[in-house]
Specification:
By secondary structure, this protein is α/β, with parallel strands linked by helices. It folds into three domains: 94 residues, Chitobiase, domain 2; 319 residues, TIM Barrel, CATH 3.20.20; 145 residues, Alpha-Beta Complex (Alpha-d-glucuronidase, C-terminal Domain). Helix content is 37%, strand content 10%. It has 20 helices and 15 strands. The protein has an eight-stranded parallel beta barrel. It has a five-stranded mixed beta sheet with strand order 1-2-4-3-5, with helices on one face. Strands 14-15 form a two-stranded antiparallel ribbon. The longest helix is centred in the last third of the chain and has 33 residues. The chain is globular and about 75 Å long. The site of beta-D-glucopyranuronic acid (BDP) has 11 residues, from loops.
Amino acid sequence: MQNFKAYILIFLLIPFSLFAEDGSQLWLRFPNVKNGISADKIISKGNNPTIEIAKYELTNFWQGQAVELRTDKTLKNLKDGYTIKSSSDKIIISSNKEIGLLYGVYHILQLQETKSNLENINITEKPSYDVRILNHWDNLDGTIERGYAGHSLWKWEDLPNKISPRYKEYARANASIGINSVVLNNVNASPNILRKDYLEKVKILADIFRPYGIKVYLSVNFSSPKVLDGLENSDPLNKNVQNWWKGKASEIYKLIPDFGGFLVKANSEGQPGPQDYGRTHADGANMMADALKPFGGIIMWRAFVYSPSKEDRAKQAYLEFVPLDGKFRDNVIIQIKNGPIDFQPREAFNPLFGALKKTPEMVEFQITQEYLGFSNHLVYLAPLFKENLDSDTYSFGKGSTIAKITDGTLMKNKITAISAVANIGEDTNWTGHHFAQANWYAFGRLAWNHDLSSEQIADEWIKMTFTDDQDFVKPVKEIMLSSRETAVDYMMPLGLHHIFASGHHYGPEPWGDYKNGRPDWSPVYYHKADANGVGFDRTKTGSNAVSLYFPPLNETYENIKTTPENLILWFHHVPWNYKMKDGKTLWEELCFKYDTGMKNVRDYQKTWDKLQTYVDEDRFKSVQSRLKIQAKDAVWWKDACLLYFQKFSKQPIPYDIERPVHELEDLEKIKLNMGHHN
Ligand code: BDP
């Protein structure tokens, strides 16, 4: 009896939100809401499945005034944006499109959850981009290339008959942050996705996503005509091939009338493409564009093309695509990774941005943390995304940021789009690390409004995902906002890049020198450490990649003194004793950076442990244990890189820096069994 009373007491003392949570509800938890407003407090003419969802959200989760939902054709210029206005007795959400009304509903729910002021609201929202798209690198066998949150959400074997409840939950989560498009399958595409039986499965997903405003796209394999239907080749100038794609397009649109289009990785990393037949990327893209044009579909053609040649990999996409500017159909958009190498912790921006003046361009980010500690490391990516979007290319003079080049401000693009490789899998919490949900959220929010700050996005996300208690929000926000720079520091500071272990890309391997493999996949190709110094000379004396940037950036990067120090080893081969701005030598600075990164992770651990009382136990422990891994990995990175580079610098590790705890030879023996080719 005594015990029983004690239990009840404990039960009453534990706030509701501290009970175990599994993260499955993402930022849509609404922990304090038992039910929303009654249906008669929703004023809405007309009905369709999207409005039904809006009503469902309001009756379940909205606790404020009555809400009127109005479609308003005069708001056409807001595209799928909306306005929210409050009057004395109700809130009015208006949009040209039904989906805009649903977005407006998610907006007021977000305001409610973050305890924002709901009086006198007068909000106008217009999205920065038309197409806000996730790229899933999901294979048809259920695995995910570079996926770290379990298997694919798409159960191809069960479809079209058996339908997972998560399809709808996934669509809802995306709609709540404005994501309106998804590519379902890996860019290394199996031709089978275009087979009739697969298209029937795709149709089911498209039907489920449609009310949430989401269009489906597919990655396609350039050799599909030959592989699937035995055509003599897949040459884009071959009439039979052209007709094959036209036929395929009408087959798809019969099933999915609002199908979005194709994403294509061609002539890259062994994928087939038009160059197999001596044709150009424009020939290939245009053939597909012509097939989709009558149905309103678009082609997102990737600029991630490079081959093991003498040319610096950082220049290859530019050299390939600039001569083709103006040769693409108007329903083709060139999809460009933020950096010219490959989703590194920090890269200079890709010089192709702004270099195509007659062809629309879009950014491809990577949300999945292929090069950022998988789902083990806490790295908040909004600062990385913002750094890229805010980069000034000077392509149309000062102020020509990547954001303004891609969003149609500077180029009157018919289509504007932004994409990112998803980090979503079938893990209960969708993304593996609870904090990796923030990166899905951040991409959606920035795709909707690239002017939002990383801080504002983190603030919203923390309050909705955990609690709005400032004693929790403030320290967690500090962790998030510094976490990307911290990862850069313990992995690849000062512009170092691609010194990852080969294949899986988890952990350091600066000594990697794949003489029998591809040199452009070898870490030594990228850091070029020797007795004189370290870094890739991309100035005139080196690969001259700096010349691809518009003035004055070409000069800025050519000169070591004006190159930002966070990219100094990206553009220069720098002597070990080079004096940095803070007076340290390069070698000392490198040691200091690795040490700082490692210490920051230790601090994150301390901060997180202090926050235990604010978080339910399951999520607390899960984040805590992943921080332990991150702390161990940071030491591993620091020791591996410093002990290895020390062989060249031949200088002591400054004495105020923590001593290595590993032997280099032991670290060199580590071979993780995580598979993958490059
Ligand atoms: C690299 C990945 C590889 C992808 C490739 C791509 O290592 O798995 O297939 O990019 O984007 O980051 O095509």
